[in-house]
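SUBJECT: A protein chain and its fold
Encoding: whole-number codes for local backbone shapes
Chain under study, with its fold:
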Amino acid sequence: MPTYVDKASIVELLGHQFGSLAALCSPLSEDQWKVATCLPEWSVKDVLSHIVGTESMLAGEPTPSVDTSHLDHMQNAVAEGNEAWVESMRPSRGSELLDRFGQITARRLAALEAMTQADFDAPSWTPVGRDETYGRFMRIRHYDCFMHEHDIRDALGVPPRLEVRDIDSALDEVSTGLGYIVGRRAAMPEGARVRIDLTGPVSRSYLVQVDGRAVEVASFDQPPTVGVELPVMTFLRLTGGRADLHGGGGEITFTGDRALGEQLVGHLAFTI
């Protein structure tokens, strides 16, 4: 079923996200641009290059024709396209890339502002499937940029940016995959009742029942089989396939079947 997203809210979030990335990267030295991140083969500069590349593609620019045959970590056509953009920008200095980032994000925000709510509600291809809306695609763009901002923060040892509206939107995106995470990735057994409690600047509780397949439910008729409590940023980093370097404070605690809880936490990743 398509997801409908309020245009004004998500465009504002994207603008704020682009501004946060610019503020984070503006003071970086050339040595800091070269620092490796948790993403395979990507430096801080490569992460921002990836964002520039995606926004350039959305603006209608063609994928650069560059040799990526020396790279062996790509697993699909989308990854190959990402790497072509990143590779094309590797000769650029950090300051040059930052200027390009400012230019393309300004273009994209102007284009988004000119769109209507009907445009956002229109059917669109997205990274999660074709039966979706353009608004959902833009919510995914915010999620992707928010995660990459924190890839950069983790790499440089900068604390996370714990703004509620950004975290809320990122959680809205991650929660669409809860059934897949619990049922397929973590392989919780038939009949399992899984409770996930998030703490920190945004607190949420998810209840997932495995009954043929894993689905989110409003309540359980019995106590949870397993309960996991963890900081919200730890949850976002782990579901995004990242190491938890700056989880925002707090520890992961378990109730019920601890072995199942550890199995769940060890298999939260469903995207990267």
Q: What stands out?
A: The mean pLDDT is 92. The CA atoms of residues 38 and 151 lie 7 Å apart. The first strand starts at residue 123 and ends at 126. The chain is about 50% helix and 15% strand.
